[in-house]
Amino acid sequence: MSASVSIFTRIIRGEIPCHRVHEDALTFAFLDIAPLAPGHTLVIPRREVALLHELTADEAAALARTAALLAPRILAAVGATAYNLLQNNGSAAGQVVPHVHVHIIPRREGDGLGYRWNARSAAPEELAALATKIRA
Ligand code: 5GP
After folding, report:
1. Is 101 tagged catalytic?
2. Share of the chain above pLDDT 90, in %
3. 70 with 20: CB under 8 angstroms?
4. How many domains are contained in the chain?
5. Structural domain of 43
6. pTM assigned to the model
């Protein structure tokens, strides 16, 4: 019996239909089935891993390259003026499909999209201690 694979691997294999906009040796891209805005696109690595840091350096670079290639094409296609890249890692971060994916979300002034960005202030000593810990 074959191991279970993600819905995105099944899309790459052609077992589930999608509206493909790009494919190359390392990546695949298609329109999101439930778009936040017209042109909302998902860019994925062909190899199925759940989290960004599980990609090889080449795969991560290819993912960024494909996103950068497609973004202006998508904006031109839908007449948007800006875009967000969103990349969720882990369920606490909102990831639902455990196969790395970059959302390209076209934006325009007054489109009403947004997210909670509950920033707080941080003491310089707190930031310095954290940076030291991360560098180590
Ligand atoms: P996440 O929350 O994991 O970052 O986002 C998963 C995304 O995959 C969602 O935006 C959802 O609409 C999209 N999605 C889930 N299943 C399918 C599918 O079968 N086809 C397509 N095209 N998109 C899907």
Report:
1. yes
2. 95
3. no
4. 1
5. 7-135
6. 0.96
